[in-house]
Amino acid sequence: MIHIVDYGLGNLGSIQNMLSRLGVESLIAEDPAMLQDAQKIILPGVGTFDVGMNNLERLGWREVLDKKVQAEGAKILGICLGMQLMTKRSEEGTLPGLGWISAITKKFTFEATSSYKVPHMGWNIVQVAKESRILEQTNDEKRFYFVHSYYVELENKKETLGTTNFGGSFCSAFEVGNIIGVQFHPEKSHKFGMQLLRNFADN
Amino acid sequence: MLKSRIIPCLLLRDGGLTKTEKFKKGKYIGDPINAVRIFNDLAVDELIFLDIDASKHKVVPAYDVIRELTSECFMPFAYGGGISTAKQIEQILKIGVEKIVINKIALDNRDFVAEAVKQFGSSTIIVGIDVKKNFLGKYFVYDHVKTQTTNEQVIAYAKEIESLGAGEIFVNNVDRDGVCNGYDTTLISQVSKNVGIPVIACGGAATIEDFGAAVKSGASAAAAGSIFVYQGPHKAVLISYPNVADLEKVLK
Q1: Is A163 on the interface with B (CB under 8 A)?
Q2: Claim: this prediction has a pTM higher than 0.95
Q3: Closest by alpha carbon to A86, among A159, A186, A27?
Q4: Which 8-state DSSP code applies to residue A100?
Q5: How far apart are CA B122 and CA B164, in angstroms?
Q6: Which residues are paired to B10 by β-bridges?
Q7: Which of the residues of A are catalytic?
Q8: Which of B45, B51, B53, B130 is catalytic?
Q9: Which residues of A touch B198 (CB under 8 A)?
């Protein structure tokens, strides 16, 4: 059973659709109390950092998530903004993040004349930095769909699972113990995303 | 490196899939849900669904159809057709659609574009621009509801749409629609040169080399209909999508 956190931001329907296609049971947790028995959690997110943190604090998610993830060791997968919220802070906002990971979230900046345009939107390759169960794929090439203007910069580069090139290499996936973050959208990355969510469900 | 997206653009009419020629005729080609399932298996980059009658008949978006489509769609999905209020956009996004294509309402009410961008974010809003070339070779915006060419010059309009905050522009040359004679690369290059936001080119693709031509002309993505739903000179209905290796060759 995977619990999907509904804190008012994110395409929960798409994630649940993909999980049910995989035959994985999931539940959309609309209230922090619903996480009581959760052992696997997905923290989705489409939106801005401060709105995300504000919702997590205001609706009582933060306290419960801190307890589940840090004290009880529940496995959690942060997607896109969900990944960024796990860091200490973001250049997108002023509120502190969840701070589970020694990392900050930075903005892509390119010269106006650059051919790189923000947001980084579309399909890109994830290069494996470290062997892991979560990024294990039957396909050699790992292609995922991205839409974001900010990225995570880890203090400890050894925590990087995967990197992606966009005017330079950035961390597109990390794993620190029970905490996993991915910058791309597995729920919109058809067979590649299905494999990833399958790995998260099985391991 | 970010890949150029190759996007099947599928047209809805009365809940069925249809394919037009120069925005006319319209041949029934099958069930949209079935098509989405096949496109999933073919691992396409993205899908665009446009309900081509909704604005014309002033009907609200067919939420049930959209819901069914999204439940089968495991890749980015854009919907357009019949959108005239922010409430409708909210409802469609809630169903699980990533992006919204607005066309007619943008032409009639520029404020709507700015409002939609403010409320739903720039990367959610694609503005569709249908284009006709006049006898002097100048490009004008075409109004598909009134079925007539407007006085809006395409470049000026595209720049205005960009300034309103839209995330992408979907440029479709009406006279290339369904005729498979290649993209209008002049149009693509003129628009791409004048705006900073991604341009999705549509209209005319016959071969995968055409995708390469669209991208070389400045498009960030190439959309097409016929090439993905027809096969052979007699246009037998067959859903297909080129494999990654072949695409990489032409997109280099």
Answers
A1: no
A2: no
A3: A159
A4: -
A5: 9
A6: B49
A7: 80, 185, 187
A8: B130
A9: 117, 121
